[in-house]
Design a protein that fits this description.
Hypothetical Protein Ta1238, Chain: A, transferase, single chain, mainly alpha, 4 strands, two-stranded antiparallel ribbon
């Protein structure tokens, strides 16, 4: 198999159902999700090397699979009537994981600085790239039909990375560093 096709040499790329410019917002959206997937893979590799975060590693691998599904769903030039891969089920599962990670972490009242353990720092990188991916998906959705489950998933996923980063620090015996000029911004909320 030859990796290069030469079909994109003039700035066009294929999507499901046509060709678009490589800087089309659809390509930006699923390309940013692909970038996020790479950082998730790095976080999983570093988490696995600790020997203490096997459950987190499995969650991250599951997320990588779902990120491919998100990208696939966004790659339809005309998504109307298509059979999508993403559904509400992974969103609900993310919420359950978020709740478990919050339970495994110390109470938080102030903003924190990204960092602590290497795993936590990488999960915060995932969080910020995820937020950028979400912005691209929102822009795409403003002008084109998309699978709404993708937008919900990406929104919830950034919350997951925040919660997972904090619980990784807790499990590895690292404290979060509070932002010293932060007011108390996190309050306990009833479900």
């Amino acid at each position: 198999m030859r990796l290069y096709t030469r079909t994109g040499d003039r700035g066009q790329t294929s999507v499901k159902g046509g060709r678009v410019s490589k800087d089309d917002i659809r390509v930006e959206a699923y390309g940013t999700i692909d970038e996020l997937n790479c950082f998730v893979g790095q976080a999983a590799a570093v988490a696995g090397a600790t020997g203490q975060l096997d459950e987190l590693v499995q969650e991250l691998v599951d997320i990588q699979q779902e990120l491919f599904d998100c990208g696939s769903d966004l790659a339809f030039a005309d998504p109307e009537g298509r059979q999508f891969k993403m559904s509400e089920e992974p969103v609900v599962r993310l919420e359950n994981w978020i709740d478990a990670h919050i339970e495994a972490s110390p109470v938080i009242t102030r903003f924190i600085l990204p960092g602590g353990s290497e795993v936590s720092a990488l999960l915060h990188v995932c969080r910020t790239v995820c937020r950028r991916a979400e912005r691209r998906v929102v822009t795409l959705a403003a002008g084109a039909a998309i699978n709404e489950a993708v937008q919900k998933y990406i929104n919830r996923l950034s919350d997951y990375f925040f919660a997972a980063a904090r619980s990784a620090n807790a499990k590895l015996g690292q404290q979060d560093t509070e932002y010293v000029r932060s007011a108390e911004v996190f309050r306990k909320r009833d479900k």
